[in-house]
Amino acid sequence: MLLAGKKVVVVGGSSGIGLAAAEMARREGADVIIASRNVERLDKVAEKLNAIAIPADVTSDDSVANLFHRCGPVDHVVVTAAQLCTGSFKAVAMEDVRATMEGKFWGAWRVAREAEIRPGGSLTLVSGFLSVRPRPNSAIVSAANGALESLARALALELAPVRVNAVSPGVIDTPIRAAMPEEARRDMLAKTAAALPVGRVGAAEDIARQISAFMANGFATGSIVYIDGGALVI
User: Which of 160, 92, 172 is nearest to 123 (CA)?
Assistant: First the structure.
């Protein structure tokens, strides 16, 4: 098992990509701590995984500081937590724009500052391929993702010998899309799948495999890996 005896913290580990990463880390032998704002869901997942649950809100300095005070030294940290708001650039509310940056970018920044990661350990951020392939009505998400990828490269130098990388997913079928009307969601996913070389959209496990690889590969730092089903080549 690649992560036997390692302590792994997954911030955003109660659903979607974070949950898949936590599950994979457990299968690889890690002791896992999951953190999330949704306490009820967090506790259920922790019981299922035999993991430790610590409620945390990445938009709060004190909450993130408390999380890592309780964790102590760790080997690997994964940040998947995000609060995304989209809309027309001219019309989207500034409150929503700030919330997106606060949750996705500044949340990762707080985690990186507070986590006590052992030398040779890793921090993995999750961005998104809109950083390099933007589309209408998603300017703030593109900007947040691009900022995260730049942050990963910079922290690979600042936090060395801790390794810092980012995974940039394409279209993934996760609960974050549950707010869409079901028919619209299915139609969007089907059309996306038909256009991709792999013939399908991504699953949370696809991204978790790359996160696991970053934790296990001691020669990987400052890397951004796009897992998008070939979206960037069409």
Answer: 160
User: From CA 209, how far away is CA 62, in angstroms rounded?
Assistant: 31
**Taking the chain (234 residues) in consecutive chunks of 10 residues, what is each chunk's mean pLDDT?**
95 96 97 95 95 97 98 98 83 92 96 98 97 92 96 98 98 76 87 95 97 98 97 92
Q: What is the DSSP string of 58-83?
A: TT-HHHHHHHHHHH-SEEEEEE----
Task: Say how many C-beta atoms besides its own lie within 10 A of residue 60's C-beta.
Answer: 15
Q: Taking the CA of residue 37 as centre, how many other CA atoms within 13 Å lie in the half-sphere pointing to its CB?
A: 10
Q: How is domain 7-225 classified at the CATH fold level?
A: Rossmann fold (3.40.50)
Round to whole Å and give the CA distance between 22 and 7: 11
Per domain, the residue ranges of the chain are: 7-225
Token digits of residue 63: 């909450």
For residue 85, the Cα-to-chain-centroid distance in whole angstroms is 16
How far apart are alpha carbons 194 and 90 in whole angstroms? 31
**Global pTM?**
0.94
